[in-house]
Amino acid sequence: MSTIIFIDQIGRTILGDEVSRENGLLAVKNPCMINVNQLQNGQLQVQLFPLFFPEFLDESSRSSGTVFEFPLNSIALGKNISVDDRLKEQYTRICNPPPASPSNEEPPVIKLFDE
Q1: Kind and range of the H or E element at 59?
Q2: pLDDT for the residue numbered 20
Q3: Taking the CB of residue 95, how many other CB atoms lie within 10 A of it?
Q4: 51 CB neighbour count, 10 Å cutoff
Q5: Rounded CA gap, 30 and 22, in Å?
Q6: How far is the CA of 30 from the CAs of 18, 39, 47, 53, 61, in angstroms?
Q7: Collapsing DSSP states into helix, strand and coil, what is residue 14?
Q8: What is the Cα–Cα distance from 81 to 103, expressed in whole angstroms?
Q9: Residue 103's pLDDT band (boundaries 50, 70, 90)?
Q10: Burial of 86 per CB tally in 10 Å (0-12, 13-18, 19+)
């Protein structure tokens, strides 16, 4: 699978792994929306948001991820775009998070109210 970037029919910039391109549809695995905000100091902050959060999937579906199909006649495909490695790393962390290590320690109890 290769990483692809495109603009969907409502203007979101989407980054994902291309699964297939057939029958007028682009199938993308684990698509994420790229969100850019300007901070008060003038710098830009780039964030990726999955189109569908893996936390909402059952365990069996989480490992395989999500695939969305986009009609090719209503999206703008990026051509000759090489995505920055930092963006690819962020995408990988979101779509393939490291497994949580089991801990034998009990979490500390937080008291919300004074006794």
Answers
A1: helix 59-62
A2: 94
A3: 19
A4: 15
A5: 18
A6: 9, 27, 15, 9, 12
A7: strand
A8: 42
A9: low
A10: exposed
pTM to 2 decimal places: 0.75
In a domain, 115, yes or no: no
The residue range of the domain holding 45 is 2-95
Residue indicated by tokens 């089991």: 102
Query: Encoding tokens for residue 51?
Result: 């189109």
Q: How many residues belong to the chain?
A: 115
Quote the CA–CA distance of 53 and 34 in Å, as a whole number: 14
pLDDT in tens, 62-91: 778 889 999 999 999 988 888 888 888 888
The pLDDT score that the predictor gives to residue 74 is 95
Q: Where residue 55 sits, what CATH number does that domain have?
A: 2.30.30.100
Q: What is the pLDDT of residue 78?
A: 84
pLDDT at 10: 93
The HSE-up count of residue 37 (CA atoms within 13 Å, CB side) is 6
Helix (H, G, I), strand (E, B) or coil at 84: coil
